[in-house]
Amino acid sequence: PKYEVNVPEDTPPDTEVLRITATDQDEKNKLTYTLLSSTDPFSLRKFRLDPGTGVLYTAERLDHETMHQHTLTVMVRSCDLLPSVRCVSHKLFYIPLPLPSTLQVRDQDIPVKRNLVRVIVNVLDTNDNAPWFSGSPYVGRVFESAAIGSAVLQVSALDKDKGQNAEIIYSI
User: Which part of the chain is the Cadherin domain (predicted)?
Assistant: First the structure.
């Protein structure tokens, strides 16, 4: 399965981008959503996922010129809700242990079912960069005898935006 969504780059942080939905035939099971991985670790900082609802939010401003597409992997897990056990997402912890040490971890044999979904976030370019002149200041000279319509000076401007947002219109 795959979700694909378009998000303008000027979208503020904490904006809902997408609601990932999953169903479980066993109604007593609780679903937990986790932002598992990305093709680029940079993308994991740009988004956050509500583990209870599956809503994906922007965590930071997006920038089309830096990265125009983010590919994320979301895991949805289902676990039987026993009164004494919580269904939690895995986090990575560093625990310094004196050597030699033995660390035992048990999962209490709770049946956990999971599925993965790919989420593609396309960052749409907005006109967020101002054009600039590449050779400023410009100085032009014209002879008194120059014909009307003669070229006096040629200027050049650039814009970091792409496509239509990078088109430059000159006027005096």
Answer: 3-133, 134-172
Token pair for residue 166?
Answer: 């990078």
CATH number for the domain that contains residue 24: 2.60.40.60
Q: Is the pLDDT of residue 91 over 60?
A: no
Which residues have a Cβ under 8 Å from the Cβ of 23 and sit 6 or more positions away? none
Q: Which of 107, 106, 17, 2 is nearest to 58 (CA)?
A: 17
The count of domains in the chain is 2
In angstroms, the CA 22 to CA 78 distance is 10
Per-residue confidence at 111, pLDDT binned at 50, 70, 90? low
**Region 127-135: what's the mean pLDDT?**
87
